[in-house]
Amino acid sequence: MSASLALDALTKTFDGADHAAVDAVSFSVAPGECLAILGPSGSGKSTVLRSIAGLDVPSSGRILVDGADVAGLAPERRGMAMVFQRPLLFPHLSVLDNVAFAATVAGQSKREARADATQFLELVQLAGFGSRPVTALSGGQEQRVALARALAARPRVLLLDEPFSALDPELRSDMHALLAAIRAQVAPTVVMVTHDRDEAAIVADRVALLKRGRLLQHDVVERLYTRPVSLDVSRLMGGRIELAGVVRDGVHESAIGRVAAPAGETWADGAGVLVVRQEAVQVAAAGASAPEGFVAVDVVVAERRARGPRAELALALTDQAADAPAGSVDGPRLTAEVPASRPLAIGERATALIPRSACTVVAG
Ligand code: ADP
Ligand code: MG
Fold it and tell me: What pLDDT digit, counting tens, does each position of 47-79 carry?
């Protein structure tokens, strides 16, 4: 039932706009795969999704479903269904008839359409809710009905535009579990827009990261975190550590010293910024030496921020901190996360241990 989807240099410039809302975006999604389109507000995510659905007409480029160009196909002929942030249910219809609506309009008998809709209500774990008015539902339940209605159309591609972002965190994680269960049972190809990288990491197999209409990186989630292709990607994924320096013969040199490229990585000669995830940095006692595969850096705790069960530490390099009062040091810093129970206080000296395998170098 599910189809492959490919975008080939999709571009959309709205009338009167000075730059393209979507600028030559290409990616492909395998049948049954879930792709998250991630990016800040205004980066063109919804425009990509609406173009796929046929709700926006691209300025140029192609959209291929199972290899066939869908240009010229009306939205309802594309074999797609879309769920928006707001569920857009018909308030005068019952839950069941909302789900059965499209099939009824398409000419199926009411009895058949309702029997079919009942199955999809079960799939979204709303069995027994069919006869209720939709006005009696909670936000999370409404969104489940919207999902059931979309799935009842048996889409080859399911399009989701920030479908869970209006829900509170607990409901949102229930919906993530539900989406996983749906994927296990009916395996539609899914494209989901989100501005939340944690959500992208939870639901998606791959992520297409957009900024100002451009595709910055299309990759598995883990690589966006650990192998960003640019400083933009590193920052949009929440990376905090940036060490400006120079690469010579595969070795990066910066304020923390020399770091050789890990096996399988090639770093081009010239100026480059070493990035490494703050989650990968360990904090050991002052004077600790580096275990095999780690770079040890003498630091002093410059700031400490509570993050619930974790604490985030800003670590100034000791060389620069030696004569300055704690917290007043400019210049390169490291960031690390430790359990909140670690008693590392501001002003305390420590050793940051950076795993070489977690380091990558991007253009500045
Ligand atoms: P996102 O979903 O990532 O927040 P959008 O795709 O909605 O971003 O918008 C991308 C850009 O296109 C924004 O600059 C937005 O203002 C512009 N845009 C979106 N829809 C329209 C429209 N119908 N007319 C004009 N400009 C639009
Ligand atoms: Mg949007």
Answer: 999 999 999 999 999 999 999 999 999 999 999
Q: In terms of domains, do 291 and 350 share one?
A: yes
Backbone angles phi, psi at 164, to 5 degrees: -115, 5
For the ranges 5-14, 236-245, 317-326, the lowest mean pLDDT is seen at: 317-326
Range of the domain at 319: 239-364
Is residue 234 assigned to a domain? Answer: no
Residue 232 counted as domain residue: no
**Ligand 1 atom at minimal distance to the Cα of residue 210:** 3
* Strand segments (E) across the chain: 5-12, 22-29, 34-38, 60-65, 68-69, 80-83, 157-161, 189-194, 206-211, 214-220, 241-248, 251-254, 257-260, 270-276, 282-285, 294-307, 310-317, 333-339, 349-355, 360-362
Global pTM reads 0.93
Which one of 7, 23, 37, 47 would you pick to mutate in the ligand 1 pocket, going by the greatest count of ligand atoms within 8 A of its CB?
47
Same domain, 214 and 245: no
Number of domains in the chain: 2
Protein residue with least CA distance to atom 16, ligand 1: 42
